[in-house]
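User: Could you check the structure of this?
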Amino acid sequence: MYEDRIVVDPEIMVGKPVIRGTRIPVDLILKRLAQDLDLDELYADYPRLTPEDVKAALEYAEARVKGEEVFPTAV
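Assistant: Sure, the predicted structure tokens are below.
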């Protein structure tokens, strides 16, 4: 579960969700994955990041999107 790995603390990165014990924001992981799915490069750039951390970031994003209300717009 992402709750074990993702923390939101106003004292860390101004309250952005980050990987516990790091200053690696979830949005940075998502952006990197969207730009390039090369996980080896991501792990090389952020050696403290683990596959479980990346999965937690994706689960966190899914939970946020899943809870959003969607309002269709007329065309």
